[in-house]
Amino acid sequence: MKKIVILAFATVIVTSCNSKNSKDENSTVLTDTIVNNEKEDTVESISVYEGILPCADCEGIKTILKIDVVANKFQLSTTYQGKQPEKSFTEKGNINTEKGLEKDPDGTIFILNWDKPEKDQTYYGYYSKNPEKLYLLDRNKKVIKSKLDYFLELNE
To answer: Which of 21, 55, 119, 124 is the most exposed place for a label (fewest CB within 10 A)?
Structure first.
């Protein structure tokens, strides 16, 4: 009888230990999944556009624009190429969006530094049919008409 009680007690202990580990493993898997999904959402909310914009007195302005549409933030990095030494600038700030670019009601305009005076704002936009090409816009939020390329391309 004593042996049966000890055997039953041992079985309960082993079973409860296995059951606890199983719960911990499930909890870990669930937590990892939530964290991974949050990271994926963060990565997808940031778009990076790159290109060489025209420059009057240099070979071109290498431009990288990172847009975080969830946080409404941007980072604009520019490097003036062909000058010695090459000058690089990085600007960070707030961004706002407007719907409609010229005759495309579904196009998007990004207003960099929207919370600053208009003279400090910069405008970029894309047409809904081609969101991979981001155009530098003039002060009237229109695409700059030129033989030169005033656009950046989405870097995937």
So the answer is: 119
What residue numbers bound the domain in which 28 lies?
1-44
Q: In this structure, are 21 and 50 located in the same domain?
A: no
59 shares its domain with 113: yes
Q: Are residues 33 and 51 in the same domain?
A: no
Are 124 and 137 contacting, i.e. CB atoms less than 8 angstroms apart?
yes
CA–CA dist 131, 5 (Å, integer): 72
Indicate if 82 and 20 belong to the same structural domain.
Answer: no
pLDDT in tens, 9-62: 444 454 455 544 444 444 444 444 444 444 444 456 899 999 999 999 899 999
Same domain for 53 and 40: no
Q: How are beta strands 122-126 and 73-81 bridged, if at all?
A: unpaired
Using left for φ > 0, alpha for ψ between -120 and 50, and beta otherwise, residue 132 falls in alpha
DSSP 86: P
